[in-house]
Amino acid sequence: MKKISLMTLMIVLTFSVSSLWAQAPKVVKIGAPIPLGGAGGAYIGLGWGYNDCQIYLNEKGGVRGKKIAFLVEDNRWDVTTEIAILNRMLTMEPKEELLLFCGNLITGTLKALSEKINREVGIPSIALSYSVEMFGKKGGPGKYPYYFSIGPDYAQQIGLLLRYIKKDHKKASPPLLAVVYSPTEYGRDPLADLKEEAPRLGIKIVAEEEMAITASDVTAQVINIRKAQPDYIIWHGFLPRMLVAPVFLKTARQYLPKVPILGTHYQTSTPMITAGGQAADGLIGVNTLVQWYETPNPFIKLVHDQGEKRGRKLAEGERFDYILGWALGMLGAHAVDVAVASGDLTREGVRKALEKSTWDFAGMYEGRQFSYASHKVPMARVFKASFSQRQWNPITPWLNADEELK
Amino acid sequence: MTFFLQSFFSGILSGLAYGLLGLGLVLIFRASEAFNFAVGEFLVLGAFLFYIFYFTWHLPFLVALPLGLGAAALFGALVERTTIKPLMGRPHLAMTIVTLGLANVLAGGLQATAGSDPYSFTLDLPDLTVELGTLIYPSPQIWAGILSLVFFCLVLLFLYRTRWGLVIQATSESQPKALCFGINAQFVLLLVWAIATVCIGAAGVVIANLGALSCQTSLVGLRAMPVILIGGLDSIPGALVGGLIVGVVEALTGAYVEPMGLIGFKEVIPYLVLLIALFIRPYGLFGTVRIERV
What we know:
Number of helices of chain B: 11
CATH architecture of chain B: Orthogonal Bundle
Largest interface: A-B, 42 and 40 residues
Number of domains of chain A: 2
Structural class of chain A: alpha/beta
CATH superfamily of the largest domain in chain A: Response regulator
Strand content of chain A: 15-25%
Radius of gyration of chain B: 19 Å
Helix content of chain A: 40-55%
CATH class of chain B: Mainly Alpha
Strand order of the largest sheet of chain B: 1-4
CATH topology of the largest domain in chain A: Rossmann fold
Number of strands of chain A: 13
CATH architecture of the largest domain in chain A: 3-Layer(aba) Sandwich
Order of helices and strands of chain A: HEHEHEHHEHEHEHHEHEHEHEHHHEEEH
Number of strands of chain B: 4
Oligomer: heterodimer
Radius of gyration of chain A: 23 Å
Largest sheet of chain A: 8 strands, mixed
Shape of chain A: globular
Helix content of chain B: over 70%
Structural class of chain B: mainly alpha
Largest sheet of chain B: 2 strands, antiparallel
């Protein structure tokens, strides 16, 4: 009897261990939709960023022995397409392998899939969106426990710009502000906060203009802005590869040559200088990451070294996206690393790892400390564009938006 | 009043560029009764060809423009030879459908070769900016109007003051009759496609100079549709009038209607005007009224 019991126990143990071993993923898959076409343009550099990050991690033997695979697919910067891609990945990929999404994740997609990702499926998703609704005061971890971002939300970015305006404005009268945005979820996202914050700082909004992302002529809108005689223009909701971005810059420079134009993260990118040409000179903006030419920065040094090792010949405009790919990829890998170390390599384990993270992207923030508990990296800098140098030069040190905007 | 004048004349200047774009389509329609749905891609291609000569090879404007548009003409002729000529004698609808396929092929090809980044596009032309009190008309807008008008007049001169122009007109009137008179209708069709591509390419250059050039600029091609349907599919003056109507209506809507909360209405209004125009005059303002006996 004793012998039979022992044998039964051994068989049960063998099955349990082998089934546990079978469940532990050998490969960690990260869903990574990126735009390779459509109205937003092609972000080839972003794809190369994931690709090279994946090679870099796997060459080192993976993350604690787990190979990393980025599932890169073209979302055409289209919400419907991206939703279809994410849904298909969730259905097709084994739950124990597909542990997080990490990619373009358009603001519209985050809004449409918020219930599914945060309540039904529960998969951590690190987005390139800085949506106020998802990451702002009314959103955040309480409402969207599985959404993460890599910079201050758009309202915080605009908050930093408004403070810049207040400091820069020398006239006795209050600063007059015109707001330009795209008619997308992304473009309209921080509007309510902007309208609330500007008057509080004594800034008067005198014009508000929407510009379609495919518009090739925005003269009428710029004439309307000119009529309102603003001291500053804030523009938001445009990607550098949208045709309207350089069209607006050029038209604004013709009609309002002396009015400073200030933008949020995606307006503050090197492709914007390439596309805008001379009209981009003197633009001001908030950017949440380090720039390609800041080579002493350890994170950028890693990206440069790896890019050179792979023989990556990136066009000027693609370098900004390449950094984004690396930043997202490395953060995802870091979360997997922490999850494996804590013995909980599941979606929930990765979420907890991200939430507790204080990782500074291999030294990107030059030793500055911050918390990721709010599900976003609160760090950003204000930059000014130089067309002759073809680059954005920081005019502030790294700012912790959570502290600056208290 | 100043605001009205500012918007109105801005609309006129944009409208002239739309008119030139419409002219390219009208020429094709008159010669082959086909609508070229690849107009947007022709526009981008023409502008890119010019871009190579002017911005990449740094040739002077007066050299780069004929070279760029000459290359565009060759492309138009090639398209006619490979896609339109084989369909001669078939229903005109077949040619129109071919241009739909062509639009997709060209769009993909352009994106693959030029990428999706916008190209900074500023012509180094004398500054003609007009400032009258609070009124301002920036130089690129004025150049858009001037260049469009010059091209329009050159095409008219060619059509109405040269032997080949007369031949094109005759063939456009009736291909069988032209053939009876010994006119090489096939070559005339090739010539028309080449000239039309030049018009569309020139419109592409002036439109890109207003902002930037990218594959997305092809969407401007959609503006050609209300332009020629309002003016009349087969009317050359109609293309100009249609262009001006669309340009002015767009500008005034942007200035007066959109600030009332109807944001984005500027993009819709040309089609609304088109709808109204078609209700009143189904063949457009200057189009030929066709009576078909059954």
